[in-house]
Amino acid sequence: MTGVKSELGPTGRVLAEVVRKRREELGLTYAQLSRRLTKNGRDIPPLSLRRIESCQRHVNVDDLAALAIALEIAPVTLLMPSGVTAGQEVRVTGCDKPVVAERLWNWLTASYPIRGAVMSFYGAALPYWERNDMEERIGALRRGS
Known about the structure:
By secondary structure, this protein is mainly α. Helix content is about 50%, strand content about 5%. The chain folds into two domains: about 10-80, 434 Repressor (Amino-terminal Domain); about 100-145, no CATH class.
């Protein structure tokens, strides 16, 4: 449906919180963060940054990558709720039920699927060099090397 603005989901709200916390940890104003982003080739004005943090603006994948670089963290860190314990349940967009934080982190880092078959996940989620390395290690284990 055209013109209907979709609600920000749980992952979008987490990102907003993590951006705000990290910006504050670095002691950056909206204007300073905006200048960093512009210098790196991604123009996000201060007002847009304020809207991201207040859950009024969505972040696309280009914004996500640029924000991670400007905030000096990994992109997956922007998607992970901060301050949670490994066993704590968290919400993630696309999952109908909460998942354990450690499972979410493992999925975000392509270490383990959030659901579904492990081997098919690895086949689709890992870059070819990682997949080849894993297959070699599994083969060596099976051969007893």
